[in-house]
Write a structure and sequence with these properties.
Strand content: 15-25%
CATH architecture: 3-Layer(aba) Sandwich
Protein name: thioredoxin-dependent peroxiredoxin
EC number: 1.11.1.24
Shape: globular
Strand order of the largest sheet: 5-4-3-6-7
Helix content: 25-40%
Family: Belongs to the peroxiredoxin family. BCP/PrxQ subfamily.
Number of strands: 7
Catalytic activity: a hydroperoxide + [thioredoxin]-dithiol = an alcohol + [thioredoxin]-disulfide + H2O
Number of helices: 4
InterPro entries: AhpC/TSA (IPR000866), Peroxiredoxin_BCP/PrxQ (IPR050924), Thioredoxin-like_sf (IPR036249), Thioredoxin_domain (IPR013766)
Largest sheet: 5 strands, mixed
CATH superfamily: Glutaredoxin
Radius of gyration: 14 Å
Length: 152
């Protein structure tokens, strides 16, 4: 059972693909997506699509982070191979997954996405289809007023 909409977001710290500790307090709009494994077909599709939408996320003031139980070296290789421009957080002990009540008992995190802001969980997506998910989350965040694009 994952954290529900309206729940307080836990503050988490984990190393990114460069081995730098990243602390997330979720005051600003943030997408935190959990995925099973680096360089697997579904996870690669999902990462590529978040990366493809990243400029629009950033224009809307939304940060994006991926989390899996893979280690820093695996994340670095995955980011390098795919040219990803956002942080992947390494959670080999499952501590970040546990903080969000995401099942990682198999050694891999269940595919779950959270949209967070103002220190709270705003939206939760469970058992997602990786293909099209990045655009779906962005569309929902814009429609729900959690993010806004600047006028052009």
């Amino acid at each position: 059972m994952t954290l529900d909409e309206g729940s307080d977001a836990p503050t988490v710290t984990a190393p990114n693909q460069n081995g730098e500790d990243v602390t997330l307090e979720f005051e600003e709009p943030t997408v935190l997506y959990f995925y099973p494994r680096d360089e697997t077909p579904g996870c690669t599709i999902e990462a590529r699509q978040f990366d493809r939408e990243l400029e629009t996320y950033r224009e809307a003031g939304v940060s994006v982070y991926g989390v899996s139980t893979d280690d820093v070296d695996s994340h670095r290789a995955f980011c390098d191979a795919e040219g990803l421009a956002f942080d992947l957080l390494a959670d080999p002990d499952g501590e970040v997954a546990e903080a969000f009540d995401v099942d990682a008992s198999s050694g891999a995190a269940e595919r779950t996405t959270f949209v967070l802001t103002d220190g709270n969980v705003q939206s939760v997506y469970e058992s997602v289809d990786p293909d099209g998910h990045a655009r779906e989350v962005l569309r929902d965040a814009l429609e729900d007023g959690l993010a806004t694009l600047p006028e052009r």
